[in-house]
Amino acid sequence: MDRLDAMQMFVRVVETGSFTRVAHEFATTQPTVTKQIAAMEARLKVRLLNRNTRGVSLTEPGTLYYEKCKAIVNDVADAENVVKVRQSQVHGQLRVGSSVAFGRRVVVPLALEFMQHNPQVQIDLSFEDRYTDLVASGIDVALRLGKLADSSLGARTLGVNPWVLVASPSYLKKHGTPRRPSDLKEHATLIYSSVQGNDLWRLRNASGEAVSVPVTGRLRSNNLSALLAAARSHMGIAALPWYVAHESLKAARVVEVLKTCRLPEQEIHAVYPSPRLVPQKVQAFIAFLQGRFGKEWWEQLPSEGSSKK
């Protein structure tokens, strides 16, 4: 058995907690699975799993190894899926979920392009900012931002969603330009209540140190377009995803503030009801999304034209 097969076995033992169940999945015997894990530990010269009558648990080095193995196994599965789905047409209805702003600006053009490549697919888009139960809502795949809670859902990491601080040139001319994070306390800020509800902005300064700054402002909203409109109307400094702000930055309606500092990035995930027996249409859509969220991915979004936010 090669090293990749052993890694796949190890990952499934951790996820199921059962050597017997993994043996059934791999059409082999429980002693064979046990032997493979033991050989892996011998090669690495470290114990990966604690075994007892209640099951198995990861050791500290086992936890680190599991995360790396899981990423490798997922990457291999993604690579194979890309080849498989390109060799056959997918069909049927695909229900896709997302938050409202990300859905409208990012998911819509991607879904339309996917439909052009797969004419037998019908897509039902559902955008909501509240948490959605995929199974209860009948969602086949959802794009979610941020850290994922541990769950039984299947997931693939697609990239990251970086944020930027912006303000209009007129606002900065009137109120001054912040030079360091602590200067934000003296400015009007535009609060995104869905993420920044505690009125505390967390940044990393030019030295990479984490800094938390209490902020105040007259406007808060759970709508990113509303905050961009307020920033363009000289109402204060807004923290926005790059995909929301980039067109206004290009047009110089707003400018970047505190360029040497960084706001936290959000991970972008494709999430689906179960990691096992994933429907081909879901595999195809996720394979299509792979590689779409690389460096400065928002630059590839179609222009919104002259419509105002």
From TrEMBL:
Keyword DNA-binding: yes
Pfam families listed in its UniProt record: HTH_1, LysR_substrate
Keywords: DNA-binding, Transcription, Transcription regulation
Single GO MF annotation: DNA-binding transcription factor activity
Domain called HTH lysR-type: residue spans: 1-59
InterPro entries (UniProt xref): LysR-type_TF_proteobact-type (IPR058163), LysR_HTH_N (IPR000847), LysR_subst-bd (IPR005119), WH-like_DNA-bd_sf (IPR036388), WH_DNA-bd_sf (IPR036390)
Keyword Coiled coil annotated: no
Family: Belongs to the LysR transcriptional regulatory family.
PANTHER family: HTH-TYPE TRANSCRIPTIONAL ACTIVATOR TTDR-RELATED (PTHR30537:SF5), HTH-TYPE TRANSCRIPTIONAL REGULATOR (PTHR30537)
UniProt-recorded name of the protein: LysR family transcriptional regulator
